[in-house]
Amino acid sequence: MAERQLICGQCGAANPPGNNYCGRCGVFLGGRAPDDGERWRPSDRPGEPRARRQAAIIYSIAALFALSCLVLSLVVIIWRP
Q1: 3-class DSSP state for residue 38?
Q2: Residue 12: exposed, middle, or buried by beta-carbon count in 10 A (0-12, 13-18, 19+)?
Q3: Average pLDDT for consecutive 10-residue bins of the chain (81 residues)?
Q4: What is the pLDDT of residue 33?
Q5: What is the pLDDT of residue 16?
Q6: Phi/psi of residue 49, each to 5°?
Q7: What's the pLDDT score for residue 63?
Q8: How many CB atoms lie within 10 A of CB 41?
Q9: How far is 42 from 59, CA to CA, in rounded Å?
Q10: What pLDDT does residue 37 have?
Q11: Closest of 34, 18, 25 to residue 6, by C-alpha
Q12: What is the pLDDT of residue 4?
């Protein structure tokens, strides 16, 4: 018994069963949609609250790192025998 070929809705090409993407144009043919990470992708627009919050967190971590390096170097210089 022959299995049905999948017909691409965009270019009309016949694809063998089991293909998730069209062999000619590459469009997704159906079934379970692939997870492209859209929910976890950070925003590219700098004005959005999430992007501003992420930038603030990164700058805070960098500032704390620089401050801790400064304090550590002062401790080493002051307590040097």
Answers
A1: coil
A2: exposed
A3: 75 85 85 54 62 91 97 90 68
A4: 53
A5: 86
A6: -60, -40
A7: 97
A8: 8
A9: 16
A10: 53
A11: 18
A12: 78
> Using CA atoms, how far apart are residues 12 and 6, in angstroms rounded to an integer?
9
H or E segment to which residue 70 belongs: helix 49-78
Amino acid sitting at position 68: S
Domain boundaries, the chain: 1-33, 43-81
- Beta-carbon contacts of residue 19 (< 8 Å; ≥ 6 apart): 6, 29
How far is Cα of residue 61 from the mean position of the Cα atoms in its chain?
21
Q: pTM of the entire structure? A: 0.40
Tokens of 17: 């069963």
| Of 35, 33, 53, nearest in space to 43 by CA | 53
Place of tokens 């590219």: 44
Q: 22 and 8 in contact (C-beta within 8 Å)?
A: yes
